[in-house]
Amino acid sequence: MRQRSNFGVTGALIATTSITSGVYSSGDAVMLSKTGVWPGSVLPITPTVDYLVVAGGGGGGATPNGTTNRFGGGGGAGGYRSSVTGESSGGGASAESVLSVTPGTPITVTVGGGGAKGTNGNNSVLGNITSTGGGAGGGDSTTGAAGGSGGGGHNNTNGGAGTANQGYAGARGQDTGSPYSTGGGGGAAQTPAQPTGAGGGVGGNGVSSSITGTAIYYAGGGGGGDRAGGGAAGGLGGGGAGSSGTNATAGTTNTGGGGGGRGDGVDGSAAGGSGIVIVRYSDIYQAASSTTGSPTVTVSGGYRVYKWTTSGSITF
To answer: Considering the chain, what is the average pLDDT of its residues?
Structure first.
């Protein structure tokens, strides 16, 4: 077979079964000069992994002690962390941590569940990357809880704080008098506006991610409830709608959306949505050696993509 030239690229070449004639084209040289590998070659270990880690959303605010005629703020979205440029919480260039990859060592994947009414969501974890569960909405003159994004406040109380680079604070409830609107939960993209009248406060919007190859919103805040206006919509990204006198809407499963808050009733606020974990890397690298948790695996657009909706692991 003819000797392969390295076309000026240093380092060892990786053998390929797709070129066996010993005759190479100019296109082969271009491929080699850009990647350092022969066309058709598959590298053994990926050095760089993009990720999206979304925690479980917080539940809508609960009424203490079953008190009647009380209501709750919207639950905060689960913490949102993405290494994809332009898709981080706050947008722009991502300042996220690099995922540590050690060949042969499993990387833990934990998909956080949504919080029940009045409780925070659960954290999601990918190796050394942790996203914080969303904060619960406030109930009966209590503030929203802090979390990945904060829960909305009851009337006359503040929303909970968000976590830096993961989400935003929940909105304050209406300051004075009837109709006692509660604030919407914070989302990965914004703190929602404070309500000023009937209807409760809308949930904060989440962030659109295309890590799977399709643009999908994640981590929207839950809408607040009130006594007269029907409740408010949840934010883009799975936030549940608030209500007035009926049960609120839960955050959407595997989006990290916050649960909606209920107005004028007992225990009608809703749970937050569960989170999700996704990784992708260039398909010039081989598939992971093993996974657990039954992730959905696709190869498209130049990437291998692994998506977990339940906890598991991945080993390279």
So the answer is: 84
Q: What is the pTM of this model?
A: 0.86
φ and ψ at 31, to 5 degrees? -60, -45
In this structure, the strands spanning 312-315 and 262-263 are unpaired
Give the C-alpha distances (Å, rounded to integers) separating 101 from 107, 125, 250: 8, 14, 35
Answer left, alpha or beta for residue 37, where phi above 0 means left and psi between -120 and 50 means alpha: beta
Domain ranges of the chain: 1-41, 45-316
273 vs 259: CA distance, rounded Å: 7
Instruction: Tell me the residue type at 63.
Output: T
Q: Are 192 and 151 in contact (CB under 8 A)?
A: no
Which of 100, 303, 311, 81 has its CA nearest to residue 214? 303
H helices of 11-149, where? Answer: 26-35
Question: Can you list the positions of beta strands (E) in 63-218?
Answer: 80-82, 107-110, 124-126, 129-131, 207-209, 216-218
Q: Say if residues 303 and 85 touch (Cβ distance below 8 Å).
A: no
> What is the phi-psi region of residue 180: left when phi exceeds 0, alpha when psi lies from -120 to 50, beta otherwise?
left
Q: Do residues 172 and 164 lie in contact, with contact meaning Cβ atoms separated by under 8 Å?
A: no
Lowest mean pLDDT, pick from 26-30, 232-236, 280-284, 300-304: 26-30
Can you say how many angstroms the Cα of residue 73 is from the centroid of all Cα atoms in its chain? 21
Question: Which among 179, 178, 174 has a CA at the least distance from the CA of 158?
Answer: 174
Using DSSP bridges, classify how beta strands 303-308 and 80-82 pair: parallel, antiparallel or unpaired. Answer: unpaired
- Compute the distance between CA of residue 182 and CA of residue 221 in angstroms, rounded to an integer: 13
Q: Phi and psi for 27 in degrees, rounded to 5? A: -65, -35
**90 is written with which tokens?**
């706050």
